[in-house]
Amino acid sequence: MPTIIKSVKGKSPSWGSDCYIADNATLAGDIVMGDRCSVWFGAVLRADVDAIRIGSEVNIQDLACVHQTAGIPVLIEDGASIGHAAVVHGATIRRNALVGMNATVLDHADVGEGAVVAAGAVVLKGTKIPPGEIWGGVPARRLKAAEPGQSRVFADHYLYIKEWYSND
Predict the structure, then answer these.
(1) pLDDT digits over 75-88, tens only?
(2) Contact call for residues 151 and 135 (beta carbons, < 8 A)
(3) Domains, the chain
(4) pLDDT by residue (tens digit) across 113-148?
(5) The pLDDT of residue 93 is above 90
(6) Of the four listed, 17, 21, 98, 109, which is most buried by Cβ atoms within 10 Å?
(7) pLDDT band, residue 3 (cuts 50/70/90)
(8) Biggest alpha carbon distance in the chain?
């Protein structure tokens, strides 16, 4: 199945240099992505009613869904990692933060720099996660402080492995 790159209401996805977009990923609408990003198999980024803005060195892993709400764009800053099958909806993910596998981050939530949202967690609408904290559970709550650089490990890993695919 080929990658789907779709214009919506006259706006088309764009991305910087040295990005990897998997064969069956979908990017639709008002998406702007920086350099050295990766969007993996089955991921869907849909920006039809508002924007999705993604920094550099971001990875959006297999089956993740990134979507916005009218008046609530998605912002994913440099070095963030969006785990397998995670949902980011109308939220802000700060620099070097990690959203774990099958986690959900809802409208107006703000995941702080270097913070970690644990696998399976649900970050409710409007929740503000401070920098450098690990949150988990349903609804998500503070579990403990993250180790310095803990979340960045995943971003660095995906910068490395995307090269295995980019050179084909």
Answers:
(1) 999 999 999 999 99
(2) no
(3) 4-166 (2.160.10.10)
(4) 999 999 999 999 999 999 999 999 999 999 999 999
(5) yes
(6) 98
(7) confident
(8) 45
